[in-house]
Known about the structure:
Shape: globular
Mean pLDDT: 86
Distance between the termini: 52 Å
Strand order of the largest sheet: 3-6-7
Order of helices and strands: HHHHHEEHEEEEEHHHHEEH
Number of helices: 11
Number of strands: 9
Strand content: 15-25%
Number of domains: 2
Helix content: 40-55%
Low-confidence stretches: 10-22, 253-262
Largest sheet: 3 strands, antiparallel
Amino acid sequence: MENLNFKQEASKSLEKSIKKNEVSLNLNQYLRSDAVIKRLNQLVGENAEKWVSTILTVGTSSPQLRECDPKTIVHAAIQSISLNLDIDKNLGFAHIVPYGKVAQFQMGYKGFIQLAIRSGKYQTINADVVFEGEIERPNKLTGEILINEENKTSDKIIGYFAYFRTINGFEKSLYMTKAQVEKHARAYSKSFNNERGRWKLDFDKMALKTVLKAILSKYGILSIEMQNAIKNDQSVINDIECDNVDYIDVIDESEEKETKDI
């Protein structure tokens, strides 16, 4: 009996290994295609080979990504490269996220901060969590909040804020409660309830990204890079130039209305 179980486990392990090698081969084939190599050379020149290796590593890093169309993985990576943002998930600048059989490009909140700093238009920019007891006084008229860290009463996170001040002195802040962020996520992300999705695995970082992206989109000075990042965030990128995109995770207004009517 033990011998039979061992054989079954060995067979499963072999099947997984073969499948991973097949995915790796398909991804590698597309990465080595003339069109991709030409595009990488345009973007990073002599570092093209390094990026081929990085994309191959990231693209086969999880069972879910190994199920995705290799082209969407490469296109998401090329979007990151065009923004000069690393796709190492530990850095949190940009991510390649599986969504069924395709991969999405997703900005991280740290990536938005990087792009803002690079533009040279911002004197300071920040996003952080707010703990229970820290809010001293909200100003509904201006949207500003006074936060006093000394008043913190627990480690319970109750909300998230984003703030920036431009070089010319204009400043703006945005605060959203945890409940408001969750409501927003449920309304606009189909994958909110996905147990393997980023909202479930990393809610706080996704919340910080939400408030930062919202305030920059509405009040920020947007460089071409920032506009591109906002436009292609949470999209499946269908072409190597990153012009043709689909927002398959985003709930549009008609879908949202249908959901509410049920």
